[in-house]
């Protein structure tokens, strides 16, 4: 957890390129806080699939389909975000172009790891130059390629970590405890759905099922799924 910033450190939070005396990039820490303010999102790896799920914020009179938390990148890769929706949309657009270029250049889909590294490199790049700011969004990127089912997290510093199950957003700590206790190798689809739903409800108290968005990703296919049903 980030330490409180002493008053004499305020000069170090005015530029992204200067480390504080104790080795902190304060603007990156602020961006991490933006991720923590976002609604809870989770990802779970199965033997031949990945489940991504998130809680969408409810806004009176808003058309729910216009407010997205989960994005399809190509036929076998999707991402779920926590933090700035605008930053997520920008990164997803860049990632989609990268996936298309890979297909045209090499004649095969981009791997989940390669695409995640590309996004993480982009996030890291904007921490190295004055006049820009870090992306205030965390992404869980899941997909299935020739190496199997993969799930990666990218955070504002550009760090990428692979997980078997992970949660991001404001309820992530409570959701992670559920995932740590309930995750098992080679879970079936029903078990994974139940675990994802339980993790989201732990992270977002009083959440209604209608505000959950979820997909299941298989090789060559991404489809919406209902965590409370069998599809």
Explained architecture:
- The chain has 231 residues and is of the alpha+beta class.
- It has a single domain (42-224), classed as Aminohydrolase, N-terminal nucleophile (Ntn) domain (Glutamine Phosphoribosylpyrophosphate, subunit 1, domain 1, 4-Layer Sandwich).
- It contains five helices and ten strands; from the N terminus they run αββββααββββααββ.
- It has helices at residues 26-37, 85-106, 112-125, 172-182, 189-203; strands spanning 41-45, 50-55, 70-74, 77-83, 137-145, 148-154, 160-162, 165-168, 212-218, 221-224.
- It has a five-stranded antiparallel beta sheet with strand order 8-1-2-9-10.
- A hairpin with a 4-residue loop joins β1 (41-45) and β2.
- The chain is globular, with a radius of gyration of 18 Å.
**CATH architecture assignment:** 4-Layer Sandwich
| Tally of distinct domains | 1
Mean pLDDT across the residues is 90
Largest sheet: 5 strands, antiparallel
Beta content comes to 15-25%
Q: If you compute it from the alpha carbons, what radius of gyration comes out, rounded to the nearest whole angstrom?
A: 18 Å
């Amino acid at each position: 957890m980030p330490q409180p910033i002493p008053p004499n450190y305020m000069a170090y939070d005015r530029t992204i390129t200067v480390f504080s005396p104790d080795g902190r990039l304060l603007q990156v820490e602020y961006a991490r806080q933006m991720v923590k303010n976002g609604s809870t999102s989770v990802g779970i790896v199965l033997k031949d699939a990945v489940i991504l799920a998130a809680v969408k914020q409810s806004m009176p009179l808003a058309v729910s389909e216009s407010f997205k938390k989960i994005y399809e990148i190509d036929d076998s890769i999707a991402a779920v975000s926590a933090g700035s929706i605008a930053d997520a949309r920008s990164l997803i657009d860049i990632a989609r172009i990268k996936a298309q270029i890979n297909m045209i250049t090499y004649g095969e889909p981009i791997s989940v790891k390669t695409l995640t590294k590309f996004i993480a490199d982009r996030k890291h790049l904007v921490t190295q130059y004055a006049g820009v700011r870090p992306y205030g969004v965390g992404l869980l990127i899941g997909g299935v390629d020739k190496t199997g089912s993969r799930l990666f997290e990218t955070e504002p510093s550009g760090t990428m970590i692979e997980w078997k199950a992970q949660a991001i957003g404001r309820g992530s700590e409570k959701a992670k405890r559920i995932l740590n206790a309930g995750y098992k190798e080679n879970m079936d689809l029903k078990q994974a759905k139940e675990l994802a739903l339980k993790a989201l409800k732990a992270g977002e108290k009083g959440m209604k099922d209608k505000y959950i968005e979820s997909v299941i990703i298989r090789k060559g296919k991404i489809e919406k799924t209902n965590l409370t049903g069998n599809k």
